[in-house]
Amino acid sequence: MKFTLLKTIALGSLLTCSAAAMANQGDYKLMVIEDSVTAAPAFEKSFNSCALTVESKNYEEAEAICTQAIALLKQSHGPRLKVRELTSFALSNRGVARIKAQKDTAGISDLYEAVQISKNSLVTHNLTRAKKELSL
């Protein structure tokens, strides 16, 4: 069921990255992994669960799951650039969860860190969106 849901809501691939974004143009972008050769299955499950839990508006649980994904990624031995990009995506997802949970300072901090790691357009979009929403 989750696999079908991921395929349904995934909007497209990012370069050769195995991630996709979900959300409409004006909203935050949540990244999911479609096919990962970089990440361990435990990381992929945690990463995707984070995005799906944010999407289902369970922000406290999403924050915990995203934090777990970030911790698992730190242990990953994949290609360094890919690990950095996925870390950026996980931080961005957690930042969105935190902002939606009204933990604005922690959320914006995650988004700034995500942009520092990777200036990917989806991550940058989330930071811009948060700054606008929080009137920064």
Describe this structure in words.
It is globular, with a radius of gyration of 13 Å. With 136 residues, the chain is mostly helical. The chain has six helices and three strands, in the order αβββααααα. It has one domain: Serine Threonine Protein Phosphatase 5, Tetratricopeptide repeat (Alpha Horseshoe). Mean pLDDT is 79; it is low at 1-19.
List keywords for this structure.
9% strand; disordered N terminus; 136 residues; Orphan protein; three-stranded antiparallel beta sheet; single chain; TPR-like_helical_dom_sf; 6 helices; signal; Serine Threonine Protein Phosphatase 5, Tetratricopeptide repeat; mainly alpha
How far from one another are the termini?
A: 39 Å
Q: What is the domain tally? A: 1
Q: Would you identify the regions where 5 or more consecutive residues have pLDDT less than 50?
A: 1-19
CATH superfamily: Tetratricopeptide repeat domain
Q: Please work out how many helical segments DSSP would assign.
A: 6
Largest sheet: 3 strands, antiparallel
Strand order of the largest sheet: 1-2-3
Structural class, by secondary structure, is mainly alpha
Organism: Pseudoalteromonas arctica
Keywords: Signal
Signal peptide: 1-23
Protein name: Orphan protein
